UniProtKB/TrEMBL annotation:
It comes from Pedobacter westerhofensis. Pfam families: ABC_tran. Keywords: ATP-binding, Nucleotide-binding, Transport. GO terms for molecular function: ATP binding; ATP hydrolysis activity. Gene3D superfamilies: P-loop containing nucleotide triphosphate hydrolases. Residues 3-230 form the ABC transporter domain. It comes from the Bacteria. This is ABC-2 type transport system ATP-binding protein. PROSITE patterns: ABC_TRANSPORTER_2.
Length: 231
């Protein structure tokens, strides 16, 4: 088990946005986190990355509370939103900076990026522009690639398919699938039930901060979720 959540609560202005009694994620799982707008998906990810603190309860990563120590930072990579980017850098400068935090030399970073040529669709590298001047979808590609490049054990992506064109969504799914292994644990939030059931082994459905469904994906999962959301 890599993640263990115990009695986790968060409220904003008296409104419960997270209320999880107990939830564990096994190492190597690819988990889809779904739920309607405001269900608490991003709030959960932000607590997992210690960007905000819970009112009570804890999130343990490899047995240690993420709010009390920094060890999880060595094996966790994430992309939640554009706030993770550095607007005044070019994509190359940003990738090299992120790589340097993981002891990757510039050359290694640039070599590594070759494998994303198809994903980048000739729109990211060698453009001579700053990250701030890219479209939202291309900014997402930069952030997601920087997270993947860190070769983490725990990967956290918030709505990675949002703003991507259909071709890139399909390529991203293929990338995520190719990364699946015994050691990489991935948490992906998404509103796209097709993509999430295609890529994930397990789906956790939230409503008002609570876990409503926690299912291992099978051939009926998409239908079950569509039925749930069309109520
Ligand atoms: N800083 C904040 N101050 C007040 N309320 C907040 C804050 N952050 C989140 N919320 C509220 O918490 C609830 C959960 O928000 P969250 O962003 O976690 O949901 P979500 O499931 O990621 O939604 P979406 O699918 O729309 O991205 C929402 O009602 C939101 O308005």
């Amino acid at each position: 088990m890599i993640i263990e959540i115990n009695k986790l609560k968060k409220t904003y202005a008296g409104r419960t946005v997270t209320d999880i009694e107990q939830l564990t994620i096994g190492a190597g799982e690819t988990v889809g986190v779904i739920g309607n707008n405001g269900a608490g998906k991003t709030t959960l990810f932000r607590m997992l990355l210690d960007l905000i603190r819970p009112d009570s309860g804890e999130i343990l990563s490899k047995g240690k509370n993420v709010a009390d120590n920094d060890q999880w930072k060595q094996y966790t990579a994430s992309y939640l939103d554009e706030g993770f980017l550095i607007d005044y850098l070019t994509p190359e400068e940003y990738f090299i900076f992120i790589g340097s935090l993981h002891q990757m030399k510039s050359r290694e970073v640039m070599d590594y990026l070759h494998r994303y040529e198809e994903f980048f669709n000739a729109e990211i590298l060698d453009r001579g522009k700053y990250i701030r001047d890219f479209s939202k979808g291309n900014q997402n590609k930069i952030g997601i690639t920087a997270a993947l490049m860190q070769q983490p054990e725990l990967l956290v992506l918030d709505e990675p398919f949002a703003n991507l064109d259909p071709t890139t969504q399909i390529r991203l799914k293929a990338n995520i699938k190719s990364l699946k292994s015994g050691t990489l644990t991935t948490l992906i939030s998404s509103h796209d039930l097709n993509h999430v059931t295609d890529v994930c082994d397990r789906i956790i459905l939230f409503e008002k901060g609570r876990v409503i469904k926690d299912i291992y994906t099978n051939e009926n999962t998409l239908e079950e979720l569509e039925a749930y959301f069309s109520q």
